[in-house]
Each structure stands twice: as C-alpha cells, then as structure tokens.
Write a structure and sequence with these properties.
Elements (H helix, E strand, L loop, with lengths): L4 E4 L20 E2 L6 E2 H14 L5 H8 L27 H11 L3 E2 L1 H6 L2 H4 L4 H6 L2 E2 L3 E4 L4 E4 L2 H13 L7 E5 L5 H14 L13 H11 L8 H6 L2 E5 L3 H4 L3 H10 L3 E5 L9 E3 L4 H6 L3 E2 L3 E3 L6 H16 L8 H7 E2 L1 H10 L2 H8 L3 H13 L3 E5 L1 H4 L4 H14 L9 E4 L6 H6 L8 H11 L11 H9 L5 E5 L3 H4 L3 H9 L3 E6 L4 H4 L4 E6 L7 E3 L2 E3 L1 E4 L4 E5 L13 H12 L7 H6 L1 H11 L6 H4 L6 E2 L16 E2 L15 E6 L4 E2 L2 E2 L9 E2 L4 E4 L1 H6 L7 E7 L5 E11 L6 E5 L24 E7 L2
Parallel strand pairs: 3-11, 4-5, 8-17, 9-10, 9-15, 10-13, 14-25, 15-16, 17-18, 18-19, 26-33, 30-32
Antiparallel strand pairs: 1-32, 2-29, 6-7, 6-19, 11-12, 20-21, 22-23, 23-24, 26-34, 27-28, 30-33, 31-32, 31-34
Helix pairs in contact: 1-3, 2-3, 7-27, 8-27, 9-20, 14-17, 14-18, 14-20, 23-25
Bound molecules: ligand MGD (2 copies) and molybdenum atom (MO).
Molybdenum atom (MO) binds next to loops.
Length: about 775
C-alpha cells in the first residue's frame, strides 16, 4: 500500500519505514467476522501456509509429533500448557503456522548476502526479510562493502571475545533474551553474563508480563500464576481479561468450550469482542469438525474502556462487599482472617469509591459491573486469567494486584478450580525467568549460583529492555547480544531504538531467520544462525533435548526431530559456550563439557534452582513435572507471611477531551514481529495492516469515513510528539475514546520515556493520541 510515512520530532528521524507485512496487491477489505473461531476456517488457513512453505509433507508429520508427552518437541507457538491427557491432538492453527515457518525449505546463504547490501535489504518489508528462509552460516558485517560476509564460528567467537575483553566495565554489554530459549541455554546464558560481571539481562518479559510477575510476587510471594489446567477443567467461573485467545493462545478455546459444556460461566473482559468471546469449533474434535458443530465460549462479554479493568475489578469487589451485608457467604471470612492482610483498609477503600467514579473510569455501567460480580459470587470456584490487555499499562501492577484482591475475598486460592492464571507469551518466557534471566536477581539465587558454579556474580541490579536502549543511546552500553528475538522492532520508539543500536561497537544476533535487527546494527555486527526447536540437536554424547516451562509451571522436555536447516548451525547452548569461552578464556566453568551432554547442565541447575531437585529424572516423566508453587499450598513468601491485599488508588484513564487512547496489538496472522500476511481473519480484515480500529461515533465526530485516511499523533509524557500518517480508519465495535492498531508498526508512536513507573514496561496498550482526517 505504501501509505506509511513516519515523521518524528526527534533528531533520529527516519523519513520512511518499510512495510512490516507483505503489502500484497489486493485491495483492503473489511467485513465483520461472524463465523466460529478455529474449525474449518483455521484448517483452510493452515493448508495455505503449508503450501506456501512447501511443507505439506513435513508439516503434518511434525504436527503429529508436537506437544506429545516426551516424544516430540514443544510447540514454539505459545506458552499454553499441553493437554493433561498428553495424546490429544491439541494443536492449533497458529502453532502449525509457527512450526512450518521454522521448517521452511528456503535458505539464506552467503550468495544471498553477496547479492544484497544491507542498505538495500533495509528497504525490504519485514515479511520479505523473514520470507527468505533459514539462516545457514555465521556472517559478519563488512563496512567496506556494506554487505554481510561469511565468517567461521571460531573467528566470530573471537571477535566477540576481543570486544568484550576490551570493555572497561562489564556493564558496557547487555544480553537480551527472547522467550523461546530453552532452560538449559538460558542457564548458560545468565551464567556467562554474571561470570563476566553484569546483570544486564533484558528480556521480552520486560515488555510483556513484568507487571504480572511483580504484582504476584508482592501479593503472594510467587511471581507466577497458581492455577493449572486441572483447575481450568473444574472452575465454575472463568474470567478472561485482555487476551485475544483465538489468535494468541488458541488452545485456550478448547478449555473454554469444555467449560461451557459443563455449565461454567465464562466472562470476557476486553474493549473488543474478540473471536474467543463468541463460539468455536473445537479443532481436535473430529465429529464437531465434520458436523460444523459450534460451542459457545462465552456467557458474558464486558467491554471496558482501555485501561478500565482496575475500576471494573474494584467495582466487582465493592459489589461483593455490598452483597456480604445481607449474604455472609459472599465473603470467605475465615480465609480472609487466616491467610490475608490488609482487608479492612481495602474494604474502606472500596466503600469510599463512588459508583459514579467506577462507571466513569471503567466505561461500564453499574448494572454491568454488578452482573459480573453476581457471576463471581455465584461461583464456588473462580479463575481470573489475563494477558497484555492488563499488563502493558502504567498501572499494570496495581491492576493485577486488584485481580488477586478480588480472588482473595472469596478464598479463590490454594484450592482446586481457583486462582490467578496469567497467560504467558513466548513458549518459554516463564522458564527464562525461573532459570535466571532477571536483571534484578534475588540475593539468595546469586548466593547459590556463586556456591555451585564457583563464580562471583555481581550484586547490583542490571538493565532491563528500556534501560538498555537508553544506555546504548547514551553510549554507555556498547555491546548488544540478542539471543533470539527481534529487538529493533519489538522495542518502543523505533527511531530512537534504531539510533541506540547503531551507536554500539558490536551487535550480535543469534537467530533462525533474517530480520530487522540484523540490518539495524552496530559498527561491527554478527549474525549467528542457530538450530530451531524442531531440529535434531546432536552433540558429542548423543542427541540432546532441552526443557521448557509453560504458563502453568509445567516443565517438560522438547526433542527436535528434523534434520537441521544447515550443517553449519550450532545449538543455542553451543553458541553461548563459544561466546563465553572467547570472552572468558580463563574461566573454570566447563563450557565445552556442558555442551557435550545437556544432562550435565541440568545437574548443575538442579543444585542452583528452587524446585529443580532431581531435574534429570523428573523432566523425563511422561508429562514432565510441575514446579512447586508455595502460594498454591497457601504458603506466602511475603513480608507478612500472608497474602497481602493491596489498596492502590484508582488511576485516571479517561482520555483528555478530543483525545483518544490507542492500544497496540497483534493481528491473527502474525507472531510478534513475524508477519505471515496482511490479513486479520477474526477481525474481518484483509490486505491491510496500516489501519486503526475506531468507534464509529469517534470517526463521525472527526469527519472520517470507513477506510478514510487519518493521521495519528501521539503525545508523550514529556510533551514530544510522534506520528503515523496515512493510516486507514476501520469502524469497529470498541468503546468511545478508544482506538487500536497493530504492533510492531505502531511502536514508532511510543516514546522511550513512556514506561510504567510500577513495572518499567513500555505503555504499549495506552498511547495518548489525536486522530484527524488526513488532509
Ligand atoms: N499467534 C500468535 N500467538 C502469540 C503471539 C503472536 O504474536 N501470535 N504472541 C505471544 C506473546 S509474546 C504474547 S505476550 C501473547 C500476547 O497475547 P495477547 O495479550 O492476546 O496480545 P495482543 O495481541 O497484544 O492482544 C491484547 C488483547 O488485549 C485487549 N486489550 C487492549 N487493551 C486492553 C485493556 O485496557 N483492557 C483489556 N481488558 N483488554 C485490552 C485487546 O483488545 C486484545 O484482545 O501471545 C503469545 N502468542
Ligand atoms: N507496540 C507493541 N510492541 C510490543 C508488544 C505489543 O503488544 N505492542 N509486545 C511485546 C512482547 S509481549 C514481546 S514478547 C516482544 C517480542 O519480542 P521478540 O521476542 O524480541 O520478537 P519476536 O518477533 O518474537 O522474534 C522473532 C525472531 O526470533 C528469531 N527466532 C525464532 N525462533 C528462534 C529460535 O528458536 N532461536 C533463536 N535464537 N531465534 C529464534 C527469528 O530470527 C525471528 O526473526 O515484543 C514486544 N513489543
Ligand atoms: Mo510477549
């Protein structure tokens, strides 16, 4: 479409951005979607992808091996847990897309880089870059010709080692992780960083669920959810907040359909009515598929304004408390007295917050809020689940704590069918944190790492994602290592982040496919290609497996089964060991010995990490093992030793007059920065990504018609402005004052300074904008 033009008032201005999606020639279409989620639409879409990736034979074979007890590999698609029965064909359209994306027969070899300069590739769309296929050998940037040229692994490691050894301070380097790195590689990676002397370990959860982790830690003394799949199967009420499950956690659809069939209540809380909030055809149920039998996946949909969740939750708590005056069973007083602190203060706070204010802030009527509270009170067992719609806000921590508050009022913790249940993002993002990726590590963890691994880890906190970008911009961080992911595009304030990366002395990207982060690089740059999760990992002592942890704290093995995309690929643990040895030539850590057999890494991890005792044996149990969750047993590692009810003030989330609040999100056909097509099937959009969903009245007020061109201008907290011009407006069922569009394109609108003071997460779901008809 070529409509996208970027302007910014910063010195780092990049006049035009290439498209993210393929920008195919078809005309944009919008037709509201009225079909069930998953089912045949998904099957059709899968076939299209398999054909495009020429994977019709290998694809289905791989899918049969995916998520099957310990005989297959873990789906790299999302962090939803595997079905407890293990053998169900519980797979989804987007998982299949994701797997075949990795298995493509297309290759990016040295000839490719010889034919295209970096400046030329920088003009390509993100879709086109990844579409070239799998990276095959290590490459180094040659500034003389502006091309990437081949380099041996040995020389690549030595280049890294030389630069890192030359740094005057280990904190001049920062080591990013994207959440698919397996546990064993994760452990080695943090060990390398800490042995080098830094806690600069930014990761994608700094943009994702940092708020959830901090809130749960403060409230319950554990950074994770406590509910597991069995709880999902027995809950009487499920509250699904701020997640587009049909696209981003599609296997949840099965859980929702099963819940509906057994008579459970399912309440969706989302400014948009997403496909998961309607009905589905259970994809692995062949009878349903054959008969087009749909099952509802919702009993109540509430559409708060963006950021209105906390007011809704507080309103529900207020209604519960009001009901308890006549119906003592509305509260679990015994649970509150025995296991919690802060109840009296919280009750006073709820009582003192007026319904008028709760209605204004949530964008919902009192009647609707009370309706949700009734569902909650009528249910013996409730689970509240959430994702980015809740976490990526200024007050994300407070909102997650409010979720916990509400659960605690009725003792929905530490028993079957109940509890908080965040939906995590990347397939191993939770495992990364468990295994040591944390820029603010706990002293007890460092003590054990020091004792077991014989290193002297730094104690000062390191840099997270935003901190790293700012430090690179100031020239204080000069080496950036990306262990997977696509940092340049995933991070906020795109031009600022680009400028920051370009100031580095060295950028290293460990990747499977070509992406923007290879083209936005430091003075020196390396592309290090690695094995994907579907591939056989052969080391000196045989075929290796890695472990991952899902959203519900289950740890299990993942074994690749495909021949590697190239014989030059190394596994992630091997890449890390090579980097570490070069940077730490005198290290007494047995890097090479670890890589020969990952059991050895696991043996060390078992000594360092809580809950990993007997790791090698337990991870080989048919479904792996569940990391112990103290809060689940009503043991709270909090200062009071109890679950702590919070009493945070209600934030003001109402947009200024004339302004709108814009949230960024994924389309159905993308995986974070990987764009499969310009379609968003469940939202009824075809051939268009440069769009903004708006309320029809807000459009009318601005004289904007369907597909009318608009300019979007964001105003940051510091008053600076950023804009996207020539986007097309789509009238959508979204509350007034709210608008939505796609990441990563809209990252140009998010100022680097606009991150939550509670979680340090960039405000990816809350951008203050004005939208005007384009002149
Ligand atoms: N196929 C696929 N699967 C994925 C991913 C992918 O890109 N593609 N990404 C993975 C990753 S890393 C993650 S973190 C997850 C992300 O999973 P999601 O959290 O579903 O990601 P988003 O697309 O950002 O969608 C956010 C949802 O929150 C809603 N929302 C926005 N603002 C608010 C609000 O203020 N309140 C409420 N209640 N809702 C709001 C939006 O309407 C949208 O439905 O998915 C993971 N799974
Ligand atoms: N505006 C806005 N921005 C956002 C978000 C948002 O909602 N709105 N969401 C944020 C969230 S939740 C997240 S998690 C981040 C995502 O940020 P990242 O995790 O950094 O980005 P991805 O797009 O998942 O990374 C894709 C790249 O990973 C590499 N890759 C794939 N598989 C492997 C593998 O097995 N090993 C290795 N080494 N590399 C591999 C490929 O080269 C591919 O190009 O984006 C964040 N950015
Ligand atoms: Mo994420």
């Amino acid at each position: 479409m070529g409509l996208r033009a970027v302007s910014t008032d910063r010195d780092t201005q990049e006049p035009r951005e290439p498209e993210a999606g393929p920008a195919a020639s078809g005309a944009p279409e919008f037709r509201p979607y009225h079909h069930p989620a998953a089912g045949w639409g998904a099957a059709k879409s899968v076939t299209k992808v398999l054909m495009r990736e020429q994977a019709l034979v290998d694809g289905p074979r791989a899918i049969m091996r995916m998520n099957h007890e310990n005989s297959g590999f873990d789906c790299p698609g999302c962090a939803w847990p595997d079905d407890l029965k293990g053998l169900k064909l519980d797979i989804c359209e987007n998982g299949i897309k994701h797997v075949t994306w990795e298995m493509t027969p297309k290759r990016v070899g040295r000839e490719f880089f010889a034919a295209h300069s970096v400046s030329e590739l920088a003009e390509w769309s993100d879709f086109a870059l990844e579409d070239q296929g799998r990276l095959t050998e290590p490459m180094v940037y040659d500034p003389g010709t502006d091309h990437y040229v081949p380099i041996t692994w040995k020389d690549a490691f030595e280049l890294f080692g030389r630069v890192v050894r030359g740094l005057d301070d280990p904190n001049r380097a920062s080591y990013y992780t994207s959440g698919r790195l397996g546990n064993e590689a994760t452990f080695l990676y943090q060990l390398m960083a800490r042995e080098l002397g830094t806690n600069n370990l930014p990761d994608c959860s700094n943009m994702c669920h940092e708020a959830s982790g901090r809130a749960l830690q403060a409230a319950l003394g554990t950074g994770k959810g406590t509910a597991d799949l069995r709880d999902w199967e027995t809950a009487d009420a499920l509250f699904i907040m701020g997640v587009n499950a049909a696209s981003n956690a599609p296997r949840m659809l099965t859980a929702l359909a099963e819940a509906y069939r057994r008579g459970a209540q399912i309440v969706h809380v989302n400014p948009l009515v997403e496909a998961a909030a309607t009905r589905t055809i259970v994809p692995h149920d062949f009878v349903d598929m054959a008969l087009f039998k749909t099952t509802r996946t919702s009993t109540l949909n509430l559409q708060p304004r963006i950021g209105g969740d906390m007011a809704l939750l507080r309103g529900m708590a207020k209604a519960v408390l009001e009901q308890s005056r006549t119906d003592p069973r509305a509260l679990d007083r015994e649970f509150i007295d025995r296991h919690t602190t802060g109840f009296a203060e919280y009750r006073a706070l709820c009582e003192n917050t007026s319904w008028a204010e709760l209605e204004r802030q949530s964008g919902l009527s009192r009647a609707d809020i009370v309706k949700a509270a009734r569902v909650y009170c009528d249910a013996d067992r409730s689970i509240i689940s959430w994702c980015l719609g809740v976490s990526q806000h200024e007050h994300g921590v407070d909102t997650v704590r409010e979720i916990v508050n509400l659960l605690l009022l009725r003792g929905n913790l530490g028993r079957e069918g109940a509890g908080p249940s965040p939906v995590r993002g990347h397939s191993n993002v939770q495992g990364n944190r468990t295994c040591g990726i944390d820029h603010r590590p706990a002293p007890e963890f460092l003590d054990r790492l020091a004792a077991v691994c014989g290193i002297d880890p730094p104690r000062a906190h390191g840099l997270d994602t935003v901190g790293t970008i700012k430090a690179m911009h100031r020239g204080e961080v000069r080496v950036f290592v990306g262990m997977g992911g696509n940092f340049a595009l995933a991070a906020p304030d795109t031009p600022y982040t680009y400028a920051a990366l370009r100031k580095c002395e060295l950028t290293v990207q460990v990747s499977t496919k070509l992406n923007r982060s290879h083209l936005v690089h430091g003075r020196q740059a390396l592309i290090l290609p690695c094995l994907g999760r579907t591939e056989k990992d052969q080391q000196r002592r045989g075929l290796q497996s890695t472990s991952v942890e899902d959203s519900m704290s289950m740890v299990h093995l993942s074994v690749g089964m495909k021949r590697p995309a190239s014989r030059h690929l190394l596994s992630e643990p091997a890449v890390i060991a090579g980097l570490a040895r070069a940077a730490l030539p005198a290290s007494s850590t047995p890097w090479e010995w670890y890589v020969e057999d990952y059991d050895r890494i696991r043996d060390t991890m078992a000594q360092v990490l809580d809950g990993f005792e007997d790791f090698n044996r337990r991870v080989r149990l048919p479904l792996g093992f569940r990391i112990k969750q103290p809060a689940r047993e009503l043991v709270f590692h909090t200062p009071s030793g109890k679950a702590e009810i919070s009493a945070a003030p209600l934030p003001d989330v109402v947009p200024a007059p004339g302004g709108l609040v814009l949230g960024t999100m994924r389309s159905h056909d993308q995986w974070n920065t990987t764009i499969y097509s310009d379609d968003d099937r469940y939202r009824g959009v075809k051939n268009l990504r440069t769009l903004v969903f708006m309320n029809a009245d807000d459009m009318r007020e601005r004289g904007v018609e369907e597909f009318g061109r608009v300019d979007i201008t964001a105003t940051a907290r510091d008053g600076s402005t950023r804009s996207l011009d020539g986007y097309l407006a789509i009238p959508y069922e979204i509350p007034r004052g709210c608008a939505a569009g796609y990441m990563p394109e809209m990252n140009v609108l998010i100022a680097i300074g606009d991150y939550s003071t509670q979680s340090d997460q960039p405000l990816m779901k809350h951008i203050d904008v004005t939208i005007t008809a384009a002149p």
